[in-house]
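Handout, section B. The chain below has 140 residues.
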Amino acid sequence: MTARTYESPSVRRLAKVVDRVAPRGPGLWDAREPVPGARGLPVRVSRQRADQLWMVLGMFDRALKTGSMPGSARVRAEALFTEPVLRGFWELAESGALRALPDAVGRRLSLATMRVVRDVLGLLAGVVVPGKRNPWTRPR
């Protein structure tokens, strides 16, 4: 389990999910759980995707600290993947308000980074709320 403590119960629950599919602890990487991949086939995330999962988790933590997210998002991890929460999260992320480095806060995210965030949101939604369609991706 990650040593980081998150203020919000929903983010702590989401961190447990991320820790299962992208563990940071020594010796745990090979035992990581698979996630739904293309066409729903189970795959294990790469180290690069694992870093991206942890990045988006931190972004959720910072988004909830802004106080602009619906109250339900603080309590249940599933609520993080509702349309009102995702819309608020997306606006904050795109504007650069959720960047981790203080000097970079407010600098808009690049299109490539926003695509990564979108893909990670879809991956997390598939694990946290199985069967829920990601509203940010096009149907295939």
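Note. The chain has a mean pLDDT of 90. Compare this with the example in section A.
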